[in-house]
Amino acid sequence: MRAMAANDTCWESELAKLSQSAESRGIQLLTLSIEKEAVERLKGVVVQSGKLFNCSTFDLLCAHVWKISEITIGISEPNTKICLQFPVNCRNRLQPPLGSDFTGNAFVLASVSSTAKQLTEEPLEETIGKIQGAKEVLNNDYIKEYVKALENSSDKFLPSMRELTIVSDWLKFPFGALDFGWRNNEMILCGAALVGTPVPEACFLMPDLDQDRPGDFL
Asked: What highest taxon heads this organism's lineage (predicted)?
């Protein structure tokens, strides 16, 4: 993330470049807001289905974004293999866990695969269950093999492709706690923060800092 003063036009040129890249492939970059009440209501519905013991806000929104993005893109072949990836914090999954004094990034990408037809037709709770299952397998051995694979690979990033969706969880990022010496920091960050993405198929989930919509999500 890069936060800039409200009168700084640098972010506009960066966003324009990203938009042009996406639009050339028929993808439009959008920022959408969803009400907290709607999220809580959907979480209750999927848990009441009896197929899930619990459901976090991330699990629900991640599954929803993946399904909606597939419906929107509309991959023509129903049996086309598609993939969802999302970063998972691995600090406490390592053995021994990383200490509280560790300040760097420590995450691996969890993956869920499906066919286009299966994803669009299955109930939301089934998609959520797959996301939860992908997180459960991220143990110490998985993380070590993941790191080893990265070290032995010449290409550290996946190419942009229509079959891939990446969802990043920023829901607990303390935007309101950041202090750049400005007034109304939350409003400035909400309007002036530009989140760069390596591929157009990426989605960032974060709290909506608009004071008119407290508790909502973007």
From this structure: Eukaryota
CATH at 119: 3.30.559.10
Tell me the three-class secondary structure of 62-79, residue by residue. Answer: HHHHHHHHHHHHCCCCCC
Angle between helices 36-48 and 57-73 (to 10 degrees): 90
Reported as a single tens digit per residue, the pLDDT across 2-55 is 333 333 444 455 455 555 555 566 667 777 788 889 999 999 999 998 899 999
Domain count, the chain: 1
Please tell me whether the peptide bond between 207 and the residue prior to it is cis, using omega within 30 degrees of 0. no
Token pair of 96 as six digits: 């021994």
Q: Residue 182 contacts by C-beta under 8 Å, 6 or more apart in sequence? A: 5, 188
Q: Using DSSP bridges, classify how beta strands 164-169 and 81-89 pair: parallel, antiparallel or unpaired.
A: parallel
Burial class (CB in 10 A: 0-12, 13-18, 19+), 86: buried
The answer to whether residue 91 sits within a structural domain is yes
